[in-house]
Amino acid sequence: MALKLDARIPSGPLAEKWDKHRFEMKLVNPANKRKYHVIVVGSGLAGASAAATLSELGYNVSCFCYQDSPRRAHSIAAQGGINAAKNYRNDGDSVQRLFYDTIKGGDFRAREGNVYRLAQVSVDIIDQCVAQGVPFAREYGGLLANRSFGGAQVSRTFYARGQTGQQLLLGAYQALEKEIARGGVTMYERHEMLELVLVDGKARGIIVRDMVTGEIESHAADAVLLATGGYGNVFYLSTNAKGCNVTAAYRAHKKGAAFANPCFTQIHPTCIPVAGEHQSKLTLMSESLRNDGRVWVPKKAEDCGKEPKEIAEADRDYYLERKYPSFGNLSPRDIASRAAKEACDDGRGVGPGGRGVYLDFADAIKRLGRSAIEERYGNLFEMYQRITDEDPYERPMRIYPAVHYTMGGLWVDYNLMSTIPGLHVLGEANFSDHGANRLGASALMQGLADGYFVIPYTVGDYLASNKLERVTTDHPEFVAARETVSKRTQRFLEINGTRTVDSFHRELGKILWDKCGMARDAKGLKEALAAIPKLREEFWRDVKVLGTGEGINQSLEKAGRVADFLEFGELMCLDALHREESCGGHFRTEHQTEDGEAKRNDELFAYVAAWEYAGEGKPPVLNKEPLAFENVHLSTRSYK
Ligand SMILES: Cc1cc2nc3c(=O)[nH]c(=O)nc-3n(C[C@H](O)[C@H](O)[C@H](O)COP(=O)(O)OP(=O)(O)OC[C@H]3O[C@@H](n4cnc5c(N)ncnc54)[C@H](O)[C@@H]3O)c2cc1C
């Protein structure tokens, strides 16, 4: 059955939509807020900001995360910065420009209304974080400093050295801890959500496993918020924290939440190249480095084995500066990644296996001095040196693209509500604002916009507009969902096969990287669609999950996540196969211009693909939300 996708974008001029909507939405009387209970799954930037803010407003909140502290959410890894249209540099920035850059950066596959709101509230985020004491870098005169990120010609990225995510998360975490201490938020660390519970078609609770005792618990509420992050780890190797997964989102999908644009994944151009088969994690070198670092490869393949210093200036190809003179080294991620792949495919890659390009700071050090570079990027340089044992002050960094972020996610309307009433989705877990390619420093902006400034209004509107009967965890829907979780856990433990969970994950990741990675074509995607079900069948027959269900069992936790990846990977390939165009990070080799750039097909594909789960063994149903561009001209994206 086709879903009714109502994005609920308010009418009226773009700049007035959010204000008008805030006025039109229903409010919950302050004295009534304490009668409502909201579950927030996730305590990264999106979840922590939402949980703290809702509790401040007076709602009862239960917050869940699988780490041992909310402070360890993956958001802490974010390095480079957070965008906001403050125009402190007086260099031509505005809400309109941030809106336009984001729509264009996403290759015209995001909603105008959502993106404009994001640009509007970006300025409030900075004020909020400064008030919390987030130590953003400052100029000599005391004003907050800015740097540039890809896809923008203004400096609008606020940063705290190379630790912006950590500092922002500490701000949100303090706000959350204050509410925990006050009793407004009950925090459940080391609890993993394994099922969503629907009562009368509405999201009314979750089933979690206490990862320390192994106990399966039920939690009921009036609304459920998922802020569970992205699914980049489906590729096995990515820059994400090892625990990042798709489980919460995928279980919600199986209960009726549409999954939007699952094939839109971001491959980041500046990561430390893969070093060998043993690796289980990749490391990002922040995009901020491209403010001062110059990307190049040797012009001639025979120079690739030489020491970089021995290669004369005239024999170097600064290919981003050559191909995209306007944006140069700050070209957007999808474009910079493909250009690196092209250079390496051309036999001009450097380092082991020829899968690397140089990111060179020699000019910047000469111009600004070593101490200026150290001040801006010191911790990143140290990290690079520790991992590679090479000194980036003396020798250019070697970098290569790696999986980094997922633009796809659960479909949400303007109120961040999924296709399941009461289930709201925030941060990287939703699909909302980045289209087919996210601009650097915009994920932190979106996560905090969702948590601090959007959901506090929209969840109130949901609660005030719906009659919600009291539900307890002995309701048959809770009992059934609990039973499903227990049976699944038992099933993993009983297989007792011969292969580790990781070996399946690694194999799935390789299929996806090869066939649904930086470049995709119909032939490869069909091969992946044939291979994944076979791998899944083998997993359920031959996986070995060690230990028991009682107590800490990482093998069991991983098995649950990999089982979901094995289904979700197929959905990604199906989505990539159906989208017969190239846009942003989705590059179908059959659809490219003569000079190798992405070729969109606006006539047929200017829509959000929202996939609906149709049941075990049945193909998912494709629903389309047409995208209307009334304020920007649908142009061919150019950074030349
Ligand atoms: C190395 C790196 C650097 C980055 N740098 C930047 C940057 O400079 N600027 C920028 O804008 N973006 C950056 N990003 C992207 C950005 O960090 C993320 O998109 C963002 O932090 C995601 O926040 P989130 O709150 O949505 O999810 P997360 O921070 O991933 O939090 C997810 C939360 O959900 C919980 N969770 C997940 N599943 C379950 C479950 N089943 N049960 C219970 N809890 C669950 C986790 O415990 C966690 O608390 C970077 C990403 C990486 C990988």
Global geometry: globular
CATH fold descriptor of the domain at 269-401: Flavocytochrome C3, Chain A, domain 1
CA(first)-CA(last) distance: 45 Å
Bound molecules: flavin-adenine dinucleotide
* Known CATH architecture of the domain at 269-401: Alpha-Beta Complex
Q: How many runs of DSSP E, i.e. beta strands?
A: 19
How does this model look, in words?
It is a single chain. The longest helix has 25 residues, at 554-578. The chain is 38% helix and 14% strand. The two termini are 45 Å apart. A hairpin with a 2-residue loop joins β6 and β7 (202-210). It is of the alpha+beta class and 640 residues long. Among the domains are: 269-401, Succinate dehydrogenase/fumarate reductase flavoprotein, catalytic domain (Flavocytochrome C3, Chain A, domain 1), CATH 3.90.700.10; 476-607, Fumarate reductase/succinate dehydrogenase flavoprotein-like, C-terminal domain (Methane Monooxygenase Hydroxylase, Chain G, domain 1). The protein has a 5-stranded parallel sheet with strand order 5-2-1-9-17. A 5-stranded antiparallel sheet has the order 11-15-14-12-13. It is globular, with a radius of gyration of 24 Å. It contains 17 helices and 19 strands. α3 runs parallel beside α6 and α15 (522-542) runs antiparallel to α16 (554-578). Flavin-adenine dinucleotide (FAD) is lined by residues 41-47, 64-67, 73-75, 77-82, 164-165, 192-193, 227-230, 239-240, 244-245, 247-248, 284, 286, 404-405, 427-429, 441-444, 447.
